[in-house]
Amino acid sequence: MLGAVAVSAIAARDARAGKKTSKKLARYQTTPKGNRKCANCTFFEPAKKSCKVVEGEISPEGWCVRFVKKKA
Asked: Using an 8 Å Cβ cutoff, are 28 and 64 in contact?
């Protein structure tokens, strides 16, 4: 669990700094991982089809290791 917390903290810091990582480094995939998908992620920007922390066009059905579930 500590690993997920560390990844979340790093992703949040990078988002604030405007830094984006490549899809390859984020291990981005165009399919969800279980119930985790970009549409449910804090960093997903649906109007732009983009992400605050991953470069390029992002699918709402995608997933990457920087996934952080939106707060309800």
From this structure: yes
Residue 39 DSSP one-character state: G
Q: How far apart are CA 57 and CA 15, in angstroms?
A: 16
∠ at Cα 23 (2, 3), nearest 5°? 5
Query: Could you tell me the pTM of the whole model?
Result: 0.77
What tens digit of pLDDT does each residue of 33-64 get?
999 999 999 999 999 999 999 999 999 999 99
- Placement of tokens 């109007």 in the chain: 47
DSSP assignment of 17-35 equals HT--B-HHHHT-BSS-BTT
Q: Select the CATH number that applies to the domain covering 1-72 from these four: 3.10.560.10, 3.30.565.10, 4.10.490.10, 1.10.10.60.
A: 4.10.490.10
